[in-house]
Amino acid sequence: MSALPAGWSDREVKSKMTPKSQKLFDWFCLMLINFMWATQAPVIKLIGNRLGPVAIAFVPMILSTFLFLPALWYEGKRLGRPMQWRWSDARHFAIAGLFGFFFLQFTYTLGAQRTLAANAAVITLSIPVMVALAASIMLGEKLNVVRVFGFILALGGVLMTSVPDIRGASFGSGQYLVGNLLFLGACAGSAFYNTYCKLLIDKKYTELEILVYTSVVASLCSIPLFIWVEPLHVADILSLDRAAIWGVLELALIVYGASMLMFFSILKRLDVTQATLSNYVLPFFIGLLAVIVLKETITPLVIIGGVVVFVSTLLVTVYEAEILSWLGRRKGIA
User: Fold this and answer.
1) Model-level pTM greater than 0.70?
2) In this predicted model, what pLDDT tens digit does every residue of 201-220 receive, in sequence order?
3) In this predicted structure, what is the pLDDT of residue 9?
4) Is a pLDDT exceeding 70 seen at residue 2?
5) Which tens digits make up the pLDDT trace of 59-112?
6) For residues 105 and 218, what is the distance between their CA atoms, to the nearest angstrom?
7) Residue 37 CB contacts under 8 Å (≥ 6 apart), including other chains
8) Burial letters 101-121, b for 16+ CB under 10 A, else e
9) Confidence at residue 15, expressed as pLDDT on a 0 to 100 scale
10) pLDDT tens, 291-307?
11) Domain ranges of the chain
């Protein structure tokens, strides 16, 4: 039974939302999206060595592509939109899928094998900064005083949540140099993918089109890896136990599917710089899930850092316009 009042549709509910409530809703969705992304860490730990790193990175993505293809077909039929096979359309998905989705997954997998987890966690903090740079170049987005302050505040909070990683990091050792550079490349790929997908949203492609078509490109590019880098046999898949199967399904449906569709929807209303700042809440959610799923502990400093990041994302996502207006009036008075 619907929880909406009689006679109300979802579209009517959205039309009744005030600009402030819409922004609060978008902020809540960004927190939910990052929580969904954070589930990747404990799920991969639960899968363990049942699959190799290449399989863990690409099998859920390939499965997600097949699972969401029927939804794309239904959407196209309902909206009267043909499949986007023309080169003028396909080239955009090819660029995002190859240089974004596939590249970040490939370099992430190689980098994770060649560096410390602590190094990787610290390097990952560069993604929102890279997105801001990419969005400035590709989309013309501007960094105003609220966003700069939000970045600084969020960085302070995420450093609190990442103290164990910072202490355990080792950037002076030459043996991790290649792995560190590969992981930095993965972060650049992620920044490019997020920014280019915002460009595709602005070109009026639907969320499902962006998700499925870029996933198709990345899936096709991953085939050589299963032939020459990490051969995958049908027996490997059939031998998976229940925990591993549920883990692969969670990655396919939640991490690679639903969360990305929600993120693309948010990009219709927010700059990609604003949306990606919320990535700094990931270490807090990963720590929280480690407590719930893996029975690890969480420190008060991590909790405080998480609150700081929450505040910073609220400032940039919900209250940016009001703060800029207030600063403008103060400047006018002065």
Assistant:
1) yes
2) 999 999 999 999 999 999 99
3) 46
4) no
5) 999 999 999 999 999 999 999 998 888 899 999 999 999 999 999 999 999 998
6) 9
7) 255, 259, 282, 285
8) bbbbbbbbbbbbebbbebbbb
9) 58
10) 888 777 888 999 999 99
11) 29-143+173-276
How much of the chain is in helix, strand and coil states, percent to nearest 5? 80, 0, 20
Distance CA(145)–CA(148), nearest Å, equals 5
Taking the C-alpha atoms of residue 19 and residue 17, their distance in angstroms, rounded to an integer, is: 7
Strand residue runs (E) in the chain: none
Distance (Å, rounded) from C-alpha 151 to C-alpha 201?
24
262 or 50, which is more confident? 262
Say if residues 157 and 306 touch (Cβ distance below 8 Å): yes
143: burial class by Cβ within 10 Å (0-12, 13-18, 19+)? middle
Measured in degrees and rounded to the nearest 5, phi and psi for residue 217 equal -60, -50
Burial class (CB in 10 A: 0-12, 13-18, 19+), 209: buried
Query: What is the per-residue pLDDT for 8?
Result: 47
Instruction: Let me know: does 61 contact 249? Beta carbons within 8 Å.
Output: no
Quick one: tokens of 63?
């499965």
Q: What is the rounded distance in angstroms from the CA atom of residue 302 to the CA atom of residue 295?
A: 16
Residue at 96: amino acid letter: A
* Nearest alpha carbon to residue 45 among 302, 296, 217, 325: 296
Closest listed residue to residue 211, CA positions, set 312, 83, 13, 61: 61
Asked whether residue 1 carries a pLDDT value surpassing 90, the answer given is no
- Asked if 84 and 93 touch (Cβ cutoff 8 Å), the reply is yes
Q: What is d(CA 130, CA 277) in angstroms, rounded to the nearest whole number?
A: 11
Reply yes or no on whether the pLDDT at 164 is more than 50. yes
With tokens 């105003």, the residue in question is 144
Q: What angle do CA 57, 297, 283 make, to 5 degrees?
A: 45
